[in-house]
Amino acid sequence: MNYLGSVLPMPRRFLGMGRPTSAFFPDQRRHEHERQIPFSQFGNFSDSDQFASGPALGQAKEDSWAEKHKMRRAAMVKELKLSPDKAKDFNAVGDKYAKDRQEIAARLKKSQAELQNALAAATPDDAKLKDLVAAIRADQEKMAKSFQSQKDEDLALMTPVQQGRYLMLLHKKMKQE
C-alpha cells in the first residue's frame, strides 16, 4: 500500500490536479492552427455555372498564386504603413521579382522532373545527371539571389523603422512556412 491510499489510480480531481492541459500535451497546441480552415478559403459559390466557365486548371493555379501574392504584399504595405507612392514602388519591385521567380521555378520543376527520370533509368547517364545537377544548382542560386535583391530594393524604399518591421515580418513569414 502506498501513501495515496488503497486505491492506486485515484481520479485526478482528488489529487488536486484538475484536468490535463496543453502543458501535458505540448504537441496538441502546436498543430491546432493547422486544423482550422478560414471560411474565406471556401470562396463564394452562389454562381452554379462558376465551375463550367472557369479557366483551365493551370491558369487558375497561376491566377490564385498571383492573387495571394498581391494580397500578401497589400498586407505588408498596410503593416509597414508605407505612403501611397512608396507602396506603388514596393508593389512594382515585388511584381518584377515575382515574375522572374515564376520563370525560375518553372525551369527548376522541369529540371527536377528530368533528373528524377534520369535517376529512375536502369543505368543513369553520368554526363546527363551532371548537367541536370548543375542546372538545378544554378537555378537555386538564381532564386536565392532574386530574394536577396528584392529584399535590398524593398529596404531601400523604407525608413529605418519600416525596415525593422519589414525584417520582422519576413522572419515571422519564414517561421510559419
The CATH class of the domain at 57-176 is identified as Mainly Alpha
Q: What's the CATH architecture of the domain at 57-176? A: Up-down Bundle
- Work out the helix count: 6
**Unreliable runs:** 39-55
Mean pLDDT: 77
Main pleated sheet: none
Strand percentage lies at under 5%
Rg is 26 Å
Percent range for helical residues?
55-70%
List descriptors:
elongated, mainly alpha, 6 helices, 177 residues, Four Helix Bundle (Hemerythrin (Met), subunit A)
Describe this structure in words.
This protein is elongated. 67% of the residues lie in helices and 0% in strands. The protein is mostly helical. Helix 3 packs across helix 4 (84-120) and helix 4 runs antiparallel to helix 5 (126-156).
Describe this structure in a few short sentences.
Helices cover 67% and strands 0% of the residues. It is mainly α.
Topology, pairings included?
Elements: H1 26-30, H2 32-35, H3 57-80, H4 84-120, H5 126-156, H6 160-176
Helix pairs in contact: 3-4, 4-5
